[in-house]
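From the shared-data thread, chain only:
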Amino acid sequence: MKRSLIGLFAVLMTQAAFACPTIDVPDSYQIKEKVISMDTDFRLLGDEGDFGTIDQRVIRLSPSFVLKNDRNEIVAQAHQEIFRWGKNLEITDCNGARIGLVKEMVFRNFLSFSKRYEIYDASERLVATSVKKEFITTEFEIKSPAGVTAMTMRRGAINFLADTWNVSVSDDTVIDPRIAVMIPAFKTYADIVEDREGRERDRAEQEEKDRKRDPDRREDRRRDERRNERRN
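Structure, as tokens:
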């Protein structure tokens, strides 16, 4: 009997030791981007002040996001997987157990390009889909398959150096809050990467035009760039 009690106590202590911290997410809050060197962090602010942070890091060319509460405890983490037609963001708790999945669905044809986010729970059951509402600003609703609006996320058209998202939660039973707070951070990072890739494509296209128009001038410019790199 004594051994059984000791074994039960050990199991309970082990479970308690691995219980993840919680985070109190209000029904209305802001997510503010903070640009720090090569990484991007996000403040989570409610009416009563900061209630957490999201730290974004790039590890092995793949971004990860770490959600912490106002006591700086790790609540959840997310890791991005890149595919040919979109990106997946897997969210796990502090022990690595899956909480859910956010899939970026990309739709392309000859005339248009659009994206949609699909949110899945831990068992990969579809629980919500994004619906974009406006064109100039980034505003979209997250709705359940039954059409219930879970939350609205809005980012203004003009953002000086950093993004600010305004989030309003209508039904907190549709999506796990630990998944919900990750979506704007994921969207901001995806836009940064997309803008950078766009600039690189534009530069490559311009270089190709220069090469066809005046290959000698292009070679001179490259020679000057190499000379300046050696000086630095």
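The chain has four helices and twelve strands.
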